[in-house]
Design goal:
- This protein is mainly alpha-helical.
- The chain has 7 helices and no strands.
- It has one domain.
- The longest helix is centred in the C-terminal third of the chain and has 32 residues.
- About 30% of the residues are buried.
């Protein structure tokens, strides 16, 4: 399991800012696929499986508010679905095979399905009810598949960042293998 420190938390929040910015600026995936891939659920999977609840909460609030401020969503509507996904994963992170690529992709797929569903459910309770149709299913499919593909890539990227930027403790012992131990009387 990856050890948690302040640098990892800052990198996760920085990645949330960059992901939300790129989703807002880059129109090419939206023009080609007909949908924009949302990277926040995949990032939440990484944060929930590799860190503590503080980072999960910060990512839900900061990432959700940034996402909502650059989209047509009411401000704050993305926070709760993101947090619930992160909370559920963080509770059971010891039981999940978070070091396996297939498991990362499967968890990323589930998170990328649940988060937009929660947002649409919350939007349907407001005056800003979404218009649902066949195009919505296609967008949901693209977002889910994109989240499933992005999750193992995020684990690899953060694994390399943690390996390169964090120190590795030296495991020295006082016992030397080449030392002779004399037993008995002298």
């Amino acid at each position: 399991m990856i050890t948690m420190n302040w640098l990892n938390s800052m990198l996760v929040l920085l990645a949330a800012f960059v992901a939300v910015f790129l989703e807002a600026v880059m129109d090419l995936p939206r023009n080609i696929l007909g949908a924009q891939v949302d990277l926040l659920p995949a990032l939440m999977v990484y944060a929930a499986l590799s860190s503590n609840m503080v980072t999960v909460s910060l990512l839900a609030v900061v990432g959700g508010m940034c996402f909502d401020s650059l989209s047509a969503n009411p401000l704050g509507i993305t926070v709760l679905p993101l947090f619930l996904v992160g909370y559920a994963l963080n509770l059971k992170k010891e039981l999940l095979l978070s070091d396996q690529k297939f498991a990362q992709a499967a968890i990323g797929l589930i998170a990328s399905v649940i988060t937009p569903a929660g947002i649409m459910l919350m939007l349907s309770c407001t005056r800003n009810a979404p218009a649902l149709g066949w195009e919505t299913l296609w967008q949901w499919f693209v977002m889910s598949l994109g989240g499933a593909l992005a999750t193992p890539l995020l684990f690899m990227m953060f694994g390399r960042l943690n390996h390169n930027l964090n120190y590795r403790p030296v495991t020295e012992t006082t016992f030397r293998m080449d030392r002779e131990i004399r037993r008995g009387r002298n």
